[in-house]
Amino acid sequence: MELKKVWAMYFSPTGGTEKAVTTTAKAVAEQLGLPYEVYDFTLPQVREKEKAFAQTDLVFLGTPVIAGRVPNVLLPYLKTIVGGGAYGVPVVSFGNRNFDDALIELRNIMEEDGFRTMAGGAFVSEHSFSRKLSAGRPDAADYEKMHAFADAIVKKIQSGWEYTAPAYVKGEDPIRPYFTPRDRYGNPIDIRKVKPKTSDACCGCGLCAQVCPMGSIDPTDFECKRICIKCCACIKKCPTGAKYFDDPGYIYHKEELEEMYEGRSEPEFFV
Ligand SMILES: Cc1cc2nc3c(=O)[nH]c(=O)nc-3n(C[C@H](O)[C@H](O)[C@H](O)COP(=O)(O)O)c2cc1C
Description:
- Keywords: Iron, Iron-sulfur, Metal-binding.
- It comes from Anaerotignum lactatifermentans.
- Pfam families: Fer4 (PF00037).
- This is 4Fe-4S binding protein.
- The protein is an alpha/beta fold.
- It has a domain of 172 residues: Rossmann fold (3-Layer(aba) Sandwich), CATH 3.40.50.
- The protein has seven helices and nine strands; from the N terminus they run E-H-E-E-H-E-H-E-E-H-E-H-H-E-H-E.
- The strands form two sheets. Strands 1, 2, 3, 4, 5, 6 and 9 form a seven-stranded mixed sheet that branches. It has a two-stranded antiparallel sheet with strand order 7-8.
- Helix 1 links the parallel strand 1 and strand 2.
- Helix 1 packs parallel to helix 4.
- The longest helix has 19 residues.
- The chain is globular, with a radius of gyration of 19 Å.
- The relative contact order is 0.17.
- The protein binds flavin mononucleotide (FMN).
C-alpha cells in the first residue's frame, strides 16, 4: 500500500473523541514520516462542505458513542464523505458504559463511503453528561493504549498487508437498536426533547452558541431553539457554569449512570 498522508477527522463536542483520534493518527504519521492533517467537523458550517479522499490517504474517522451507536444526527453527513479507496480507521469514544455497536456501525459507514478499513478502536473519555463518570479520562494508561494502537497499525502497514475485507471490530451486525435509558420501574426515559436552560450566571459571552455542534443556540438570547443532542458542549464550555439541564428523567439517568458505571472500563482496539 502506498500512503502519502494521514488524516485525523472527527466530531467532538467535548473533546474526548478529538484526543483519541488526533493522538493515534499523529503517532502513525510520525512513525511513517508522513504529513498529518486535522479535519474537525464538529461545527455545522464544516459539515456543509464536501470532503473527499484519495487512495493514498489514511483516514482516522472519529465520533462519540451516543446510545450505543454512531450519533444518528451525523448519518446524513457521514454518508456524503467520499472515501475514494483511502485506508480507513474508525475510532469511537465512549463514556465508560459501553460502545455497543458504534464501532462496527462506523466501520460499515466507512466501507459504504469507499474506504478500505484496516483497524478500529474504542477509547474512554469523560462522559458528556457528567464531571464524575470517567473523570480524568483519557488518562496516562489510556494514552498508552492509544500509542499501542498506533504502533500495531504501523506494524501492519510495514508488514506488507493488503486489503481484502473490512477490518474486524467488536459489535453485532445487523446493528442493534439504540440503547434506551430506563427508570427504576423499567419504563423507558425519553430525553430526546430535553433542552438546556440558562441561569442568571450567564454573562452573555455567546460561547454556547459558537460551540453548539447543531447550531441550535440563538446567539441573541442564548436559548436552545432547535434540536439538542445532549452533547453538553454548551454546559461544559460555559465560563460561568450558566447552562444546565433540570429535566427529572435526564437527571435520574445521569445519576444512575454515575452509580452503575463507577468501575473502570477499558479501551479496546482491533488491528
Ligand atoms: C446522548 C448521549 C448518549 C451517550 N451514550 C453513551 C453510551 O451509550 N455509552 C457510553 O459509554 N457513553 C455514552 N455517551 C458518552 C459519550 O460517548 C462520551 O462522553 C464521549 O467521549 C463524548 O465525546 P466528545 O468528548 O468527543 O464529545 C453518551 C453521550 C451522549 C451525549
